[in-house]
Amino acid sequence: MSSIPHSHGVIFEAGRLAAEIIETAARDREEALDAREARLVRQETQLRRRERDLEAREKSFKWQPTTVIQRLWRWFFIEGIEEPEEFQCKFCHETFNNPVRAPCDHTFCKACIEQWLNERRSSKEPKRCYCSRELTIEELRRDRDTERAMTTAGLRPVWLEPVTVV
Fold first, then answer.
1. 111 versus 12: which is more confidently predicted?
2. How far apart are CA 58 and CA 101, in angstroms?
3. Which CATH number does 65-152 carry?
4. Which end of the chain is more exposed for a tag (fewer CB within 10 A), N or C?
């Protein structure tokens, strides 16, 4: 009979340890779920931010057929060639398409700068380049120097629309 109280103590201790293990496992699972939920919330926030950025870029830049042709041309003929930053438009971040030069010597895609200036036409504030110089559509000129430099670098500028800068 002396073994019965001893076995009750062992059983009691085993039950207590099992309850402790179950409680610890439940707590660990809850913490893991909380961490996973927090990670999912962060990822969802990042996705929403990317969607907003893409929507804003889509609204600010009207896709031109020449841009699509230019991208296809680049993909077929110069894929893998790193484009120098000097040949990238500050608006669309693509290789210049119909490059035009402002009086401040900055170059842009014709469609990008015209769209940017036209969007700000209703505003009474002066339209300023990122260098703070005031811009008007009348001051823009076809940038033949950039065209020659792009041709030399193997990045043929695309002039697929009539050259009339208004």
1. 111
2. 24
3. 3.30.40.10
4. N
